[in-house]
Amino acid sequence: RLGASKIGEPCSRKLWYGFRWVKQEKFDGRMQRLLNRGNHEEVRFIEWLRGIGCQVWDKDEQGKQFKISGAKGHFGGALDSVIKLPLEYDFDEPLVGEFKTNCTGAGFNKLCSSGITVSKPLHFAQACIYGYKYNLTHCVYLNLNKNDDDLHAEIVKLDFEEAKRLELKAEKIIFSQKPLERISENINYQACTGCNFKTLCHNKQGAEKNCRSCVNASPVENAEWFCSVHGANVPREFVAKGCDNWIDITKAE
């Protein structure tokens, strides 16, 4: 699926490439551990919030994560928690709980001085989508410095109009059968230099073969993929393989 955590990314083509599996991004063990660090910190965040008198729910009444879904199941995400503040905060409504981690440096310093809306627009976009879907107007945002355990905390008002725009953006990306507009035509543009799809986007390198990167496949209900050649939904276990009728969708421009 296209994740709510990524929808704030300014380059629609980058998101489209990722959704269509045109090039697998590979991580070594250290990087995978680093990327998973935030998941392991959630228990600590919840413990700290409860320690100052917050009510925190990380599961719904059915014992499942609070999730959002859209675009026929191809867009979605999961809330870290829903939070009710102590009485002294004089805020009676529940809030989205969003937890992140960061490294020491300019990024964390900017967050502490400018807040989530300015310094972490992808995090803010994610929180806005969650709030909009659950009708929660504010978010408790916690970001932990992994190097020294410094903690940034803020309560931020969410933007439902932005959330609506982002949901439409997600639908456009998901249902497009050709590459969308890129952020820049210059391969040396700052946002392009470290992009996993740089050579594919600017140098016309071909996509990797699988059903999602094929022009014959399109997203349908229940997060399934329909093949126009075979006239049926593709079995989930086959999507990553592709068949002899594969045609590179990145050449559909």
Helix-strand layout with pairing:
Elements: E1 2-3, H1 12-19, H2 29-51, E2 55-57, E3 67-70, E4 75-78, E5 81-84, E6 95-102, H3 106-114, H4 116-119, H5 121-134, E7 138-145, E8 151-157, H6 160-175, H7 190-193, H8 198-203, E9 217-220, E10 224-227, E11 232-233
Parallel strand pairs: 1-4, 6-7
Antiparallel strand pairs: 2-5, 3-4, 5-6, 7-8, 9-10, 10-11
Q: In words, what does this structure look like?
A:
This protein is α+β, with helices and mostly antiparallel strands and 253 residues long. It has eight helices and eleven strands. It has a five-stranded mixed sheet with strand order 2-5-6-7-8. A three-stranded mixed sheet has the order 1-4-3. The longest helix is centred in the first third of the chain and has 23 residues. The protein starts with a strand and ends in a 20-residue tail after the last strand. The model has no long low-confidence stretch (mean pLDDT 94).
